């Protein structure tokens, strides 16, 4: 029997979704808090993002197990990435990688789903290619879902949905 996760409205949890406010600090804090709760009780959490434009600037969010991100649909919920404060740094919406976090067989994210939103990475400009500038970087994931995320090759910046699971 699978237990449905607690749903947390992104706006009630500090994200503005107005296209102006930098929502990254609020998203990172929320992911950390919900990830810690999942680690304590094993019950997944869902961040529900109502329609809006969520600005993610100058830092990515390290993702945690048991935390899903679900928008109101493609065209309704958009995450717009920008590294305008430091053009040398990539800005993924979410990441958990081997290089940065030691991701591997015994250290992976699990039980998370990403669906119902767009990622616009056109505001991330870099002189050299960096896989973290693609919007999503997941080296090792495990859990339930319909798509697979287990490679070090990131999805394109307009990738709208994925669920993590071992390949």
Question: Would you give an account of this structure?
Answer:
By secondary structure, the protein is α/β, with parallel strands linked by helices. It has 2 helices and 14 strands, in the order ββαββββββαββββββ. The chain has helices at residues 24-41, 98-101, and strands at residues 6-9, 18-22, 45-49, 52-57, 61-62, 67-71, 77-82, 94-96, 109-110, 113-115, 118-123, 136-138, 141-142, 162-163. The strands form 4 sheets. Strands 1-3-6-10-14 form a 5-stranded mixed β-sheet. A 4-stranded parallel β-sheet has the order 2-4-7-11, with helices on one face. Strands 5-8-12 form a 3-stranded parallel β-sheet. 40% of the residues are buried.
Mean pLDDT across all amino acids? 81
Tell me roughly what share of residues is in helical segments: 10-25%
Strand content: 25-35%
Assign an overall shape.
globular
Q: What is the chains' assembly state? A: single chain
- What would you report as the Rg, rounded to the nearest angstrom? 15 Å
Order of helices and strands: EEHEEEEEEHEEEEEE
Largest sheet composition: 5 strands, mixed
Distance separating the two termini: 23 Å
Q: List how many beta strands DSSP finds.
A: 14
Strand order of the largest sheet: 1-3-6-10-14
Structural class: alpha/beta
Number of helices: 2
Low-confidence stretches: 140-167
